[in-house]
Amino acid sequence: MPGRPQRALIASSHSLFGQGLLSLFRKRHADQVEVVGMAATLEEALAAIDQLDPDLVIVDYDDETLNRDEFLARFVEGEKKLRLVLLSLAAGEEALVYDRRSMAASQVDAWLEEWSATPGGATPGAPAAHSESHRRKTMKHLILAGILVILVTAALILGLDKVTLLPTAASAQALPIDSMFRLEFMVIAFLFALIVVFMLYSILVFRRKSGDATDAVHMTGNTRLEVVWTIVPLITVLTFSYLGARSLAETQRIDPKALEVEVTGSQWSWRFDYPEWGITSSELMLPVNRQAVLHLSSTDVIHSFWVPEFRVKQDALPGGEAFVRDLRVTPTQMGSFKVRCAELCGLQHAYMESPVVVVSQADFDAWIASQTGLPDDPVLRGAKWAKDFGCAACHSIDGSQGVGPTWKGLYGHQVTMEDGSVVTVDDAYIIESIRVPGARIVQGYANIMPANIGQDLSDAQIADIIQYIQSLK
Amino acid sequence: MSDRGRAGVFSIGLFRGLLGLVIGVVVGMGVVSLARLLSGLPAWKPEPAWVVGAVFGAAGFMLATGVLNDWWRWAKGEETSEHPQADPRLKGWAKYLSVSYDHKVIGIQYGFTSLLIFSLAGLFALTFRTELAQPGVQFLQLQDFNTLMSLHGIVMIGAILLGVGAMSNYLVPLMIGANDMAFPRLNAFAYWINVPGIVFLVSTLFLGGFDTGWTGYPPLSARAPLGMQMFFLGVYFIGLSSILGSLNVIATIVNLRARGMTYFRMPIFVWTAFATAIIGLTATQLIGLSFQLVMFERLFGMGFFEPSLGGDPILFQHLFWFYSHPAVYVFVLTGLGVISELLPVFARKPLFGYKWVALSSFGIALVGFLVWAHHMFTSGMAPYLRVPFMYSTLLVAVPTGVKFFSWVATIWEGKLSFETPMLFVLGAVSIFLLGGLSGPPNGVVSTDLHLQDTYWIVGHFHATMFGGYVFPFFAAIYYWFPKITGRMYNEKLGKLHFYLMLPAFYVQSLGQMQVGLLGMRRRIGDYDPALGIQFSHLLITIAGFVIGVSVLIAFYNLARSARWGEVAVANPWRSRSPEWQLTSPVPEHNYAEGIEVVGEPYDYGLEGSVYVNMHATPTEAPPAPPAVGQAAAAAD
């Protein structure tokens, strides 16, 4: 072991105590510890300390003639780097160590082992961190970093306030969600600042000087701190969960007089049915300030109903009645929005968007009236069905390439089927294509007609659609 | 076996294996066609032919590489050597392209394969990122966008799993003073089974693609093109590797620790590898199961998830996320271990709260099993599950917080130096912080109603992946590079890599979060210009390319330094960890003499303290005690 041996001073008026300890030291720590002196009284011990500068003083704690409190007062609170062990045989298994920690006898062993293995001069376990000047420096660093954390947090919160983070809030449900967002962003700003400031501070201040090959302070941990930074986050997240549940409940508040709309997703369009009036629409028309309950379902794969301005989102599942899910929205702002499918649903998922129009109650009533009366012209009616049932999502009317064959100039035209046969598009073929979509597929296309389309359309509606296709020359 | 001079390329295991794979696929297809013919069906049906072909192909691959040879001999009752040896005639590159049982070679095989497919997946990302720089469809059709986007996800996951395998394979035995993994043959098997897995994943590009994302939710995945099945099979084999590799890591840590290395004296990285392996061993089965059920639904019409056949699509999501949420901790825990491992070395200060940091990994692993349904808040699952899963989800913040606070306390009042590995570690902490802090808004149900399936989520998990895996992985590569190659990387290029990647990543991730909040959905090849997010998308794309360039610089640096780099000293970082007390590169049998642990791993600053005694043979008796000097014998 390099370095000079540790120097120990033994203080006891009983010579046996001293002798026993001395022989123990010789046996166990022969080359690492040097017993530099034995003192019988307090005065002697103090004089020997000044004279011999030992690293450790062992005091017979059972010796009534020594003033133990004086020792403690001088060395525990004093500036001198010195370790003091009060050994007691009477107190059974305990020994008092300089910093008033109580140790079991076995722990003292380990403590002495560590101490004696350290070359003289160094003070393991009682690192420089305990010295007054160092403590003052640490406090200075902590206070500075703390102030910076507060400043950076404030700057971040102000900065986030200036930026548009969310789209306009256009529903009653958006309010509790947005106030939750605000709270979250504030806490995020604080925690980000806390860690990053302390990191950057360390990076800037605690740099290694070039050529310095020594290590930093030996600080292995602090149980009290660890407990604090376990408990405080625990309380924080429990609070957030509690608040989160409350705001969730607010978004789910039920209005018994809500407007009912059946929302059906299909690859890749939305359909909106108003059962009260028997209306089917391709756009979601809603009166302002009245709760709407959307009964969501799908005809094929999973879709998800999301109007960013309304905030709330819900998947639409295939599978019929048992899989219908409700979403409640109370629009608070008139205007045009879009429902955007939020669950990947295949090829044209990106384009599965439909208009959402929020109007006044009067305009809504007028719209209902206009929808319930159907136009006399079958072509116009056909165009409406094509729109409402989502045909237009795949079949263009201007000849452009789509997922399904274009309707422009389709009627009366000859098309080649998958099996190579050629068919002239007439009433019979169109009816078959709608009623039994997979029966004959045009070459180059896949059968992705919505599964229930054959049942959803009446004969009259199909007849209207045929008229409409015929009109697209 | 074969003489290299004559057998040419087929003396190399990889090439032999690929030939075996092709033969296996053909045989498998033949078997299916024959069976169909015999049952009076038309012989050729692509889907069953490819699925069975792929299974046979994987078997053919493994047989041809020779990784099954010893087991085959056991089955026949023949003796094999106690310590399996690679073909000694293989030198240089050939050694790495063939079966080896040395954990260090396997670790490098994992690492190299990981970087290879990491680049591939990055390339996919840059391709569709370019498309997204502007709204509208520029050059990438939606079908191809969907396939590339889906492949980017799953190939990256493969890259990360292999990178994690690389780190735990190379480092765990070295760090605990072992000479190899517990099961070297299983170790080789677990690596090689990845190769057919990767081949199948990439083959989806040529078999119609798949448009479901890596999550593969039915019913969409039940209708997707043939590529879907190859995706399932690829994940299946990579998952098998993950399970077997985890088993091996656990057995190694439990059984092969050096004398005196108690659990709480292990280098902290080993704790995270341990926690990771426990998750990998116990959760991976569920993703295999969920994909297998869809596979059978497609092949045999079994309606597990199809409502019209009596199934339920929500069930899939529960099975899938029961693995796939804990999986993210598989991805990040080892990286967090690298952070905890490197900070004390570069701060010259003990790891603050070793036991807390060690156990926090287990805390994260444990809580990670109880949170999966937070991916399903909007899915239409039973509504009563939402609030309890919100509570459990946010609990993850507690052990994660312990790590952050302990890291900061470790560098506080340290003596920091900033070589490339330290820069990457510090960068990792700040980015993982960003990823971690963007988590609670998704974990709180009400705000998740807005965030679910948006680009916010994309930003969030890219931040966790970069902070928890990519940055630490690069830190690990630079840090252990001298140990692996015996040469030093180029410090200037390493720093350039860092200073390009860090700001670019911040731009990318914050940009993704911002557009997500404003209404950008995930997984769309085109977006509504009305959202006003074009400029952000342009920035994200540019940042993506800067990251790509920085990674190229890293590859150049590593390739060049491995060959021409300055010869490294044995312990350039003055680490206390046992692997650094060895020569570089590490000798073939690691610790020939055996080591003994006699102290704590991170006692930096404690003078005279020793962690590892490199010569565990008992030392001679201590010298006789000298006379005790008695300057003042007052008591006598």
Oligomeric assembly: heterodimer
Work out the radius of gyration of chain A: 42 Å
Strand order of the largest sheet of chain A: 2-1-3-4-5-6
Q: What is the string of helix and strand elements of chain B?
A: HHHHHHHHHHHHHHHHHHHHHHEEE
Question: End-to-end span of chain A in angstroms?
Answer: 101 Å
Low-confidence stretches of chain A: 120-129
Shape of chain B: globular
Give the C-alpha Rg of chain B.
26 Å
Alpha-beta content class of chain A: alpha/beta
As laid out across the biggest beta sheet of chain B, the strand order is 1-2
SS field, number of helical segments of chain B: 22
Give me the strand/helix succession of chain A: EHEHEHEEEHHHHEEEEEEEEEEHHEEHHH
Roughly what fraction of the amino acids of chain A lie in strands? 15-25%
Please bin the fraction of helical residues of chain A.
25-40%
TL;DR of this structure?
Chain A is built from twelve helices and 18 strands. By secondary structure, chain A is of the alpha/beta class.
Q: Key terms for this structure?
A:
heterodimer; A: 473 residues; alpha/beta; Rossmann fold; Immunoglobulin-like; 4 domains; six-stranded mixed β-sheet; five-stranded mixed β-sheet; 12 helices; 18 strands; 19% strand; elongated; B: 636 residues; mainly alpha; Cytochrome C Oxidase, Chain A; 2 domains; two-stranded antiparallel sheet; 22 helices; 3 strands; globular; disordered N terminus; disordered C terminus
